[in-house]
TrEMBL record, chain A:
Protein name (record): Cytochrome C oxidase subunit II
Main location: other
Nucleotide-binding keyword on record: no
Species whose genome carries this gene: Methylomonas fluvii
Subcellular location as annotated: Cell envelope
Matching PANTHER family: CYTOCHROME C OXIDASE SUBUNIT II, NITROUS-OXIDE REDUCTASE
From TrEMBL, chain B:
Recorded superkingdom: Bacteria
Protein name: B(O/a)3-type cytochrome-c oxidase subunit 1
Entries under Gene3D superfamilies matching the protein: Cytochrome c oxidase-like, subunit I domain
Cytochrome oxidase subunit I profile domain span: 1-501
Regions crossing the membrane: 12-33, 54-76, 88-116, 128-154, 174-199, 211-231, 251-269, 281-308, 328-349, 369-388, 408-428, 449-472, 506-528
Length: 174, 539
């Protein structure tokens, strides 16, 4: 068998390149906790309206004891509910998404708020917004004829503004 | 060698492939125009999604499968110098696959299967769509059996001899496809068909996505292996040179087969039904499978350099100019490698576990696979077609200069179409939208790119027309042509090949272990935890 020296060197270099990429990915995952959204948690998508967590009056933003915020959202043809929502900037926000029908994807462009929403499962993503403004929330997985019409809006305001808006406490349904 | 029957077999497969390609290309142009929103009278989401679904099935499943089968039969026949084993069996496979295509085409064209070529349950298509798709795969299994039988026949008659490289690669692809198609076959047979026929009421979309991910990555290597086979075994000869290393080529094909299989979860990075650890494991495997492509790039370019220097090219880059750029196959590889560099870069972004969140399911993804599949993989199918058509029909190529113009226009059209597509993705445009309806300023930034893409689509459809026209006129030609496929010789004759580079026994065991590790628990978990299936949803 004949393997040229140049080829051996190149194979070594290739291995080095792939190794470098893998090291960076593993480093960012395990040292900095940067993960793809993974949350193996099942839910009966046909009974969301009866569930303790995703019934209609439970949706939207909820303040947690540690100052972070949990947002519960339902995706269904063709919208994300609640359709309007105001959230604070510079705050740890955990989104919990469920589908009431088919597979959807949700992406807020220019942010890392992106996940698939598979019926039967709860998708969870944690992020923080650094800039105030209107963020479109777009469905990015084909879900039927109205796929291109499936979107909503999230308004991000400064932390102080948000506190003022939510002084009287309770759910923020916009 | 009298191989008229083999020629007919290969040519018939090729015509189904390129006929489907021509039809799908026209649909592609319609789609890029429709989605731009500049031509209101064309707007119809029903037609759009029926077209997208059909375009995907024709390009991804029909063009590829029939091309690969036709190519494989002829490679087996000409490298092994054996007649195709049991021609009735081969034609039966062809008939089963074609019946499947026709059955699937009915609901597709009637808008009853607008679920895209990736199925997406709990969206439900007409049962005929799933049954047709299954028959297409079953037909391709006939081909796999033929390839493996012929490989064994030859090995039995030539013990300890190295299997000719092109046939080694083709057998590797047959084995790869059997492993690959098992995932989608399980999804279709145990989930989709019983559910679509009403035998079971619910379907677990998480399990369905996991099974589809089993297939979704290695299927692109099934499509790519004929292209790489041509890179290694046909192009060096056409360029006027030799293959730089036969052994490294075998190693690359083995790595492709072994490592393309256990890595499908990079399609599920953003999914909720699989855990971090499994995704990271598949991410590492995804980077391992870049190795055979790095090796291929090196060996193939080294082979081209040998040819360029033999043709009188001097200096560091002079050999590039000395290549026969007017040979369709050589031009195909040059343009294909250029697209591979950019498409490969995009692929590394997609493969990067966390960075993928930025581009997942955006227009970037559609741009990426059009560049690397529609570009690199398919342009070599064209190169092979231009080389094979005169041999198979016994008539000279109708217009060689049109072939050169066609390859350039395909490359230019693909660049003009996919560059804006990538940018649209970075600007947040979701994939597979038939129109832009978001009341947000972001969408204004999309418009110039939508316009540019239309020009790319126009160039591509003209190019597709030139290909089909040239092949058709060649077939009808009156002059005669005598020739046979010539395979490249390696610069160092293959001697003392270790059995692990000449046999797949060991590698099948390795694949079995890898698949058990990579997919065993991730599939088992659906039966261990309490899951809730979904009912049937129309589109």
């Amino acid at each position: 068998m004949h393997i040229d020296k140049l080829e051996k060197n190149w194979a070594g270099i290739s291995l080095g390149i792939a190794g470098l990429f893998v090291t960076v990915i593993l480093g960012s995952a395990f040292l900095h906790g940067i993960h793809a959204p993974s949350n193996v948690e099942t839910i009966d998508s046909a009974k969301l309206h009866l569930s303790a967590e995703f019934a209609e009056d439970k949706l939207g933003a909820h303040r947690n004891a540690n100052g972070s915020i949990t947002v519960r959202m339902v995706a269904g043809r063709y919208g994300f509910y609640p359709k309007e929502l105001t959230l604070p900037a510079e705050t740890e926000i955990t989104f919990r998404w469920v589908s009431l029908d088919v597979i959807h994807g949700v992406h807020m462009p220019m942010t890392n708020m992106s996940t698939m929403i598979v019926p039967g499962y709860v998708a969870q993503v944690s992020t923080a917004f650094h800039h105030a403004g209107d963020y479109p929330v777009l469905c990015n997985e084909y879900c039927g004829m109205g796929h291109a019409h499936m979107w909503s809006n999230i308004k991000v305001v400064s932390k102080a503004q948000w506190e003022a808006l939510n002084k009287q406490g309770g759910a923020n349904h916009g | 060698m009298d191989n008229a029957a083999e020629k007919k077999l290969a040519l018939t497969h090729f015509w189904v492939a390129f006929g489907s390609f021509g039809l799908a290309a026209v649909m592609g142009l319609y789609q890029v125009i429709e989605r731009s929103g500049f031509f209101g009278f064309l707007e119809s989401r029903e037609v759009y999604y029926a077209s997208v679904s059909t375009h995907g099935v024709l390009m991804g499943f029909v063009l590829t499968t029939f091309f690969i089968m036709g190519f494989g039969y002829y490679v087996a026949n000409t490298t092994l110098k054996l007649p195709v084993w049991n021609k009735t069996f081969a034609w039966t496979g062809f008939g089963v696959a074609l019946t499947g295509v026709v059955l699937a085409a009915l609901p597709l064209l009637l808008g009853q299967a607008s679920v895209l070529f990736t199925f997406y349950p709990p969206l439900m298509a007409h049962p005929l769509f799933y049954i047709g798709a299954t028959l297409l795969v079953v037909g391709s299994w006939f081909w796999c059996v033929s390839m493996i039988v012929m490989y064994m026949q030859w090995k039995k008659a030539n013990p300890d001899q190295p299997v000719p490289l092109a046939m080694f690669a083709t057998t590797a692809n047959a084995i790869l496809w059997l492993w690959t198609s098992a995932g989608v076959a399980a999804e279709v047979l145990f989930q989709l068909i019983p559910w679509a026929l009403g035998w079971i009421d619910t379907i677990d979309a998480g399990l369905a996505r996991t099974l589809f991910a089993w297939t979704l990555h290695p299927i692109v290597y099934f499509w790519l292996i004929p292209t790489y086979t041509a890179f290694y075994t046909l192009v060096p000869k056409q360029a006027g040179g030799f293959l730089f290393s036969d052994e490294m080529a075998r190693a690359a094909f083995i790595l492709l087969v072994v490592f393309s299989l256990p890595i499908g979860f990079h399609h599920l990075y953003m999914d909720p039904e699989q855990g971090h650890g499994w995704k990271i494991l598949h991410a590492v495997g995804t980077f391992v499978v870049t190795l055979p492509t790095f090796i291929t790039g090196f060996t193939v370019i080294a082979s081209l350099e040998i040819a360029g220097r033999l043709n009188g090219g001097k200096g560091l880059f002079g050999w590039i100019a000395a290549l026969p750029w007017n040979n369709p196959m050589v031009l195909s590889i040059i343009l294909g490698l250029l697209m591979l560099i950019f498409g490969g870069f995009g692929g590394l972004v997609n493969a990067s576990y966390a960075m993928n969140a930025m581009v997942h399911n955006t227009a970037w993804i559609s741009g990426h696979f059009h560049l690397i599949f529609g570009g690199t993989t398919i342009i070599m199918y064209f190169g092979i077609a231009y080389y094979f058509w005169p041999i198979l029909t016994g008539k000279p190529l109708f217009c060689p200069s049109m072939a050169i113009a066609q390859l350039w226009s395909w490359f230019i059209g693909m660049v003009i179409m996919t560059t804006p597509w990538h940018i649209l993705g970075l600007l947040g445009q979701p994939r597979r939208i038939d129109s832009v309806n978001y009341n947000n300023l972001l969408t204004i930034s999309w418009e110039p790119y939508e316009v540019t893409m239309i020009f790319g689509g126009l160039i591509l459809v003209v190019s597709a027309g030139m290909l089909v026209y040239n092949l058709y006129k060649t077939h009808l030609g009156s002059e005669s042509y005598q020739g046979e496929v010539e395979y490249a010789e390696p610069i160092h004759a293959v001697k003392d090949l270790p059995s692990y580079l000449n046999s797949f026994t060991l590698w099948n065991i390795v694949i079995g272990i890898f698949m058990l590790i990579a997919f065993g628990y991730p599939i088992l978990q659906f039966f261990l935890m309490e899951t809730f299936g979904s009912g049937r949803w129309g589109v």
